[in-house]
Amino acid sequence: MLIGIPSEIKAQESRVGLTPESVQELINHGHKVIIQENAGFEAGFEDSQYESVGANVVSKPEDIFSDSDMIVKVKEPLKNEVSMLKKDQILFTYLHLAAAPELTEGLVKSKSICIAYETVTDENSKLPLLAPMSAVAGRMSVQAGARSLEKPLGGRGLLIGGAPGVTPGNVLILGGGVVGENAAIIATGMQAKVFIVDKSESRLNELQTKFGDRIVPLLSGETKLEEYVAECDLLIGGVLVPGANAPKLISKEMIKLMKRGSVIVDVAIDQGGCVETSKPTTHANPTYIVDDIVHYCVANMPGGVPMTSTLALNAATLPYVLKIAQEGYKNALTSDANFLAGLNVFKGNVTYKAVADDLGYEYINPINAIN
């Protein structure tokens, strides 16, 4: 199979779909790889490294899209990339379609085969290809939030960990999944007072076992969220409904209860955000202010640490890329129900139910679509 790796063109996105080591693994199995010139440069990988393992470096994205059987990316394709997709071509990347109606329409029209990292599952119903980036984003969220609390950036002028004789700040984390757990690792390490809200009592018990009295677990159905929102200095939005739009847990009215100069980091923004006042931002202009509250809503947070993110992502995705290349998409997907869950669009049909429901498409069962 011929596998293509285009440069990422989303604003301030410096990750790359495959590392030189991953490319070498594919070539060792008899496949061919073409990569766009300097696609890995910002993540720390030189063209010469790709060439040394047998990849062909090309200068134009058109060369990637016109020749490849499978396109491996990191972020969703932008409009001009969608226009280059071919019928029956495999696209393997993050898609987050429920929050992207125009992209979904374009992929449907392309008649391509679109597999989303974020909806592939495992035997425990977890999301193994989303997890590494969720971990990175969770850790970055507290760094970004702590920085945004500084006065020059519009924040309260508060040091999240306090100081001798000064009480630390309050961090409220919505969601106890991978994002929430990793946010808690950094927040507790910074000596903040950390509250984690989740709807699962068993998950909160797991987190309590891990962190002990360094966190305060809060069961969502039994918690007056407004009271904790009003008292927090930093709010981390880390909720997830796989493949669907994130629920709006924080309303405009709740924002007005927050202390002036408090910070919201909405990690769920690539799925529409869990805060009503959230809108996507970029690493170049990461924050804006609504009702005196700083909002940090960068839609590709892990892109800010592309070397770490690319290495973490490849460790998870390479076995799946290799499986498609070795077996072809039909056998690779139909032989593994967890991998099949990643199929979002197939030759003009929407094959992921949450996307179909959110965007008003007819849902086609993926196994029926393929067969």
Could you characterize the architecture of this molecule?
The model has no long low-confidence stretch (mean pLDDT 96). The two termini are 21 Å apart. The chain has helices spanning 20-28, 47-52, 61-67, 79-82, 101-110, 131-148, 178-189, 201-211, 225-231, 252-255, 306-334, 337-340, 353-359, 366-370, and strands spanning 2-5, 32-36, 56-58, 70-72, 90-93, 113-116, 170-174, 193-198, 215-219, 234-237, 263-266, 287-290, 293-296, 343-346, 349-350. The protein has 371 residues and is an alpha/beta fold. Strand 5 (90-93), helix 5 (101-110) and strand 6 form a beta-alpha-beta unit. It folds into two domains: 2-119 and 306-370, 3-Layer(aba) Sandwich (Rossmann fold); 131-299, NAD(P)-binding Rossmann-like Domain (Rossmann fold). The chain has 14 helices and 15 strands.
Major sheet: arrangement of strands: 3-2-1-4-5-6-14-15
Largest sheet features: 8 strands, mixed
Strand % is: 15-25%
Count of strand segments: 15
Distance between the termini: 21 Å
Order of helices and strands: EHEHEHEHEHEHEHEHEHEHEEEHHEEHH
CATH homologous superfamily label of the largest domain? NAD(P)-binding Rossmann-like Domain
Supply Rg. Answer: 21 Å
The CATH architecture term of the largest domain is 3-Layer(aba) Sandwich
Total number of distinct structural domains: 2
CATH C-level class of the largest domain: Alpha Beta
Low-pLDDT sequence parts? none
